[in-house]
Amino acid sequence: MTMNCLELFAGCGGMGYGFHKEGFNIVCANELEASIGETYKHNFPDTNVVIGDITKKDVKKQIYDSFKDKPCNIVIGGPPCVAYSMSGHRNSRDPRGQLFNDYVAIVKKLKPDVFVMENVKGILTILHDKPVLNAEEKELADKYYKLEEKKIEYSLKKKVLSAKGKKMKDSEEEITEEAQASYQKEVDDNTQALKQIMSEMNKMKKNILKFRMHVTDIIKDRFKKMGYNVIMKLLNSANYGVPQKRERVIFIGVKKNLKKDMSFPNPTHSNDKESLLPQWVTVKNAIDDLKNMDENKDIQQIYTNHSKNIVEKIKKTPIGSSMNPKYTEAFFRCDPNKPSNTVKENHGGVFLHYEKPRVMTPRELARLQSFPDDFIFKGSKSCMLVQLGNAVPCKLGQAIAKEVKKKFQ
After folding, report:
1. What is this structure's pTM?
2. 4-128+212-266+394-408 belongs to which CATH class?
């Protein structure tokens, strides 16, 4: 049975490619950014790629129209994870965390037999407002979020003041005592205000569960009320042949009336030396054949021109460290004998090559995400890095697709 598929929040199509490889018919995909959508169009020429904001009625209509004469058997994709990320501020009222509602609305309209939704590991610990709050709970929530907003405001100001202080210290001009005193007062006032806010937020911690619950429970409850049985698990991409230790939370929902017991794919690879499974795929396994290749834009083996100073810094950066001590992820030098850490865009601060005095190329990063070499990324190099940093590894998507296919054959 061929299953018709819709991919939401599609990005460049990492999840979709995995399902495509297992014979799913990707009828339609939606992506907000036009430049990223061009990558999807190029690699999935038979798919109707709808470019635009999923919150808009006309975009939803284009998606629904794609299934006018055929059923939508499966919906895949993960609402943007910015509000759930472990890095930075995690704001449960961030509108980027509310796009889940649009995913739900489309599932409700198209009534697929099954859906697969992915998100970052951070979603496991974030709390969200309960769907319905009484007056007392709402008052508590509003008070807490006002403090949260202030915390973010003063935390950002702390960074600005730190940069200002560094600039004053490095300045060749003489700083007057009055200017120094004024600056120090700003720092002290901001520090005191931040401490006060943190103290008030800590006092409220015991009341948080009066108005919040785990967002994962909210997600599962929403789908259960719509008639789906839902399972959830944290999967490590390295366990499925991806040369990267990228962890993603996967939700799979199946219509209750189909009476199918869904399950997650068993690992195909292991980090256990005693296991009978193949060992994790390493960075060196994945990209070593590319290291001496001349630049080849056809497969996007595109090198970065580093200054002599940067080249020397890279040479001195040991395996398992970052070129810049301030960062733990950007310009990190991967261990060639292990899977990489999570591939992230990091504003160009991508991994350093384990042997060469340079950053990794888009194709090398694509290999770490298990994209085949004939999967071509459109747009500028920086756009390619964004696409790669946000993608679901193809082999993780394919492992999930195989498991779904087994249940529906």
Report:
1. 0.84
2. alpha beta
